[in-house]
Amino acid sequence: MKRILVLALMIIGAYTKGFAQELYVFTEPASNMPTKSIGVRITNEGMFNNPGFVSRTIPEVMIGFNKNLMMHAQGFMSDMDGKYRLEGGSLYAKYRFLSLDEAHSHFRAAAFGRVSTSKRPTYTRDINLEGDNSGIQSGLIFTQLLHKLALSTTLGYAHAFENSDRQIAGMPQPKNMLSYSLSSGYLVLPIVYKDYKQPNFNVYLELLGKTDPSSGQSYLDIAPAIQMILNSTTRIDLGYRFQATGNMANRYTKNMYLLRAEFNFFNVLK
Description:
Blueprint: H1 2-19, E1 37-47, E2 54-64, E3 69-78, E4 85-101, E5 105-118, E6 135-146, E7 149-160, E8 176-189, E9 200-211, E10 218-230, E11 234-246, E12 255-265
């Protein structure tokens, strides 16, 4: 039994070493979490332009059903409309349909879908299905690993549900949104991998954009981030996104930090 446990931990360590730089902070990679595993996250987002400071807390549970399919369940709580309250929730699923593996590189492609609900009033044209809007989203993710560097791009399309009962007169009524991103991650430490207990330190730079096809308004954010992985099971993220260019007004995520803690439990599902 002890030998089996040690072998399992070695596999987990090898997985983390190989894919650590794909664990992007603001986007999802095409790769999935290990089969029969469960992850628990708590994320805090702070926004500085609303006009004062507001924050959102996102508890999240992730399940890896097999090597190709995983799912996330999220809840959203914030003080954006006064006191802290529960805003809504979201279900996210990702299916990896392509894997091309080589010695020190691989390519992954996946399709994803999301359905979200929110009881927030609609204030901005930006469709954000992680707390601000009710709606659905689908898209594709392509991720390329090249030794210590991982590159990924995401293309998505979101549709917001009609919320006429919560619509504020004179405020935008967003309906559809194109989203796109380009993410890069680099494994800084360890320089030489010895065992799964070694801390992993990763740096990221992500470009996050959206376009409203009805108005032509768009924006592009730059999002640098750092990440620490401990014992191949615990992950800590810290990132900040800011607008590089754009003409979409009254965005919530325009100047936003993200702080996250994640805990993974491997091979727990029967």
